[in-house]
Design a protein that fits this description.
single chain, alpha/beta, Rossmann fold, six-stranded parallel sheet, 11 helices, 13 strands, EC 1.1.1.271, NADP, multifunctional enzyme
Amino acid sequence: MEESIVKKRIFVAGHKGMVGSAIVRQLKNRADVEIVTRDRTELDLLDQKAVDTFFANENIDEVYLAAAKVGGIHANNTYPAEFIYQNLIMECNIIHSAHKHDVQHLLFLGSSCIYPKLAEQPMSESALLTGVLESTNEPYAIAKIAGIKLCESYNRQYGRDYRSVMPTNLYGENDNFHPENSHVIPALMRRFHEAKEAGDAEVVVWGTGTPMREFLYVDDMAAASVHVMELDSETYQANTQPMLSHINVGTGVDCTIREMAETMAKVVGFEGEVVFDSTKPDGTPRKLMDVSRLSDLGWRYQVDLEVGLRKTYQWFLANQDNFRK
């Protein structure tokens, strides 16, 4: 008679989002894992009582906290109150309820925007709280910093093992392709695709094209998240500090916006001209993560930009009808 496998019950909060769905893909074939998910109609993460009841009833062993309100510059500028309020409330509800119901292991997903606008490049974990944040997404960044500090505080006071990972710019399957509220890669992918379909002669990209950015394919982010979550405590603690516990996740490689846009045109098959409107703002000259800590912990990215864009575009083509609703 075969022994039955005792499965860990893992709650992936935000499982329909880009990162959460990628984490589910990473975990779904594990024989020792039972994935627990709830959509918004089943569990409102902004409702403290509902979240507490969920944890009281579900016997969760681990949590991946990938739920968040996210968006590009336009969305952050337009809805700052929603960005700070909703992210703070979700983090507080999930992290506190996890602790209250004796969940020992949790991974919080943050963002590279936690670092100061003028942080030294590449940005190391120690840059946190050393300068002024980028004003356009400061409310979101402050909420994410609060999430890191929540994890550190429960670790320090209660001996929990709550960890945090800070991804660079992400893209991939299940991204938001809204024409106004999305990030640069999905926004440009949609624009290049629609220009190709319309037979346009050119696509205009804001700025000079000279700023440097780092991009990470979302399945790599999910793999890194699982890797960090599954490190034994001794290894993790040896590579972090009690009040500097977050770990950067990225490629450690950047490119210009011009290079990214030209690669995008190639992937999409747009044969017109890519024009840069230098009257529009460029934003920060460079944003690159120092990923040496993660490298020391044994993880490195696998998917380069062109391959990742091709995978993303294939998914976009298969799902584009959903973006027009």
